[in-house]
Specification:
By secondary structure, the chain is α+β, with helices and mostly antiparallel strands. The protein has a domain of 128 residues: Gcn5-related N-acetyltransferase (GNAT) (Aminopeptidase, 3-Layer(aba) Sandwich). The protein contains four helices and eight strands. The longest helix has 16 residues. The model has no long low-confidence stretch (mean pLDDT 92).
């Protein structure tokens, strides 16, 4: 488990989005849809059976009394509708894909419901959390790992300012490791 400092923010707002650490019972259907949709899960391990997704939600909701820092629900600011999830936390040192010798980097990850694709939500959510992190945390590398075949995610990484540094094999597929210094997101 990483001992890296993580974000203290429990809510981050952008023009259209609310990123919140609190998982709510009203997020259930969105969470289950996110976990069971074959297109959404195509590059991240494949869909889960509905019963497994519901069980994971129940466990996460019960544990949400002490939410994990750096893990956010992406919700519509006006309606609080669940759109997806975003994580900015230490990448596990035992996983491949690091730029620091000690394996201590922040990792950015995100996944959105298919109905939220193409509206710029992933970019807006990622930029908002990175801006807050850059103002709160010391400068350090941030990594983003995506399956090389995931062209949409590769384009988003580039748009955010991440640059590919190498590829490696994980989960039976080629992954691309992208990185950016946290300081570039200071605004």
């Amino acid at each position: 488990m990483s001992r890296m400092p993580t974000l203290s923010a429990t809510e981050i707002r952008s023009d259209r989005l609310l990123l919140r650490t609190a998982l709510r019972d009203t997020d259930r259907e969105g969470f289950v849809e996110l976990s069971t949709d074959p297109e959404v899960q195509a590059y991240i391990g494949g869909p889960s059976p509905r019963s497994e997704a519901e069980q994971r939600f129940d466990v996460a909701l019960a544990a949400d009394q002490a939410p994990r820092r750096g893990n956010f629900v992406i919700a519509d600011l006006a309606t609080d509708r669940f759109l997806g999830t975003l994580m900015l936390a230490g990448r596990a040192a035992d996983r491949p894909g690091h730029v620091a010798e000690d394996g201590e980097e922040l990792e950015l990850g995100y996944v959105l419901r298919r109905g939220a694709w193409g509206a710029g939500y992933a970019c807006e959510a990622a930029a908002a959390v990175l801006r807050v992190a850059a103002g709160e945390l010391p400068d350090q590398p941030v990594v983003l790992v995506t399956q090389s075949a995931n062209e949409r995610s590769m384009r988003l990484a580039a748009r955010l300012g991440f640059r590919p540094v190498r590829t490696f094999e994980e989960y039976g597929a080629e992954q691309t490791l992208c990185t950016a210094p946290l300081s570039v997101f200071r605004g």
